[in-house]
Amino acid sequence: MKKYILIIAVLFAFVSCEEENIVFDSENGQTLAKFSASSILVPTPTEGASINVDVFVSTKTDSERTISVEVDPSSTATSDQYTISGLTIPAGAFGSTVTITGNFDALPEEGRVNLVLNLVDVSGSNDIVIENSPLNLEFYRECPIAAGEWTINMTDSYGDGWQTDTATGGSGLTITLNDGTVLEVGLCSPYGSAAGTFLGDGECTPNNGSEGTVTITIPQGTESAEWFFPGDQYGEIGFEIISPSGEVAGGYESADAGLLTIDYCK
Description:
By secondary structure, this protein is mainly beta. It folds into two domains: 32-141, Sandwich (Immunoglobulin-like), CATH 2.60.40; 148-259, Sandwich (Immunoglobulin-like). The chain is built from one helix and 18 strands. The longest helix has 19 residues, at 2-20. The chain starts with a helix and ends in a 7-residue tail after the last strand. It comes from Maribacter dokdonensis. This is Calx-beta domain-containing protein.
């Protein structure tokens, strides 16, 4: 009886190992294809801008293959605003790098356009399965940052200052320069402390909770500035950002928290 039990145990172990030892076939097996990203911002300066996105495939062949993509109907970008290249997978390779280039001159002076690409097929591939599609790209004009005095006009419709990332006040609109300098502006709240320089003098003035104007100086040579709005607890906050040339370059009313897009082309 013990011999039979031993034989059965050995057979079971052998079958279990066989089931787990799956061999992947990179030449004749099923092909998985996908983009390496799903969403990309493409700030485009006057000379244009290119971004690279890898298309991975799980099989290889001894001849070139063509990647097929199509523009989704939800796209707002027109064909003159971008070009696509790199849609060929070399023989023996598991993918290719697709290059999408934005055309500054064709992009709108204000706002963004989006290009949604669907990965459709890879020629010469067996039983293809597409994953991580579509790819969404947002193009907008990127101009050099204007040095000088920027003006921020701020309002609160209820008249009690800003309640941003907390219900009793919170931090203000922050501008982080590439050298690490952080500027912060906002309307002070009477309900709690608020960080940063508010109304330009570092003093909270809760009796002036309806509106206020502050100026900041962006020095010559600044290469980048990140504008961040922490949030609007009660949907009461408004502001507009005026460039040194006097143009409205950005601003929101009852905005969601996050990075702001500033139109430096103005």
